[in-house]
Amino acid sequence: MKILTTRQASELWNVSPRRITRLCEEGRIKDAAKVGGIWIMPVDTKKPSDARIKSGKYIKKNVL
User: Per-residue confidence at 7, pLDDT binned at 50, 70, 90?
Assistant: First the structure.
């Protein structure tokens, strides 16, 4: 099985290695595993979707 490191995934997905590490820690990258202090994942892993709110509006509304 071919693998990607966080650095390789960051270059492939155009995000920082730190962001890849956070996605792994949060369990958002399927089949990612920590080996010897680094995160690895299968080479065919897809980039997780962006979970940020894109509309600019908050989902929760403050009700007084």
Answer: very high
Reading the block at residue 17, the tokens are 């290695």
Q: Tell me if 50 is assigned to some domain.
A: no
Which residues, other chains included, contact 29 with Cβ-Cβ below 8 Å and sequence gap of 6+? 20, 23, 39, 41, 45, 48
Q: Do the domain assignments include residue 61?
A: no
Whether 51 maps to a domain, the answer reads no
pLDDT in the model for residue 8: 94
pLDDT of residue 64: 60
Beta strand ranges found along 1-64 (DSSP E): 3-5, 33-35, 38-42
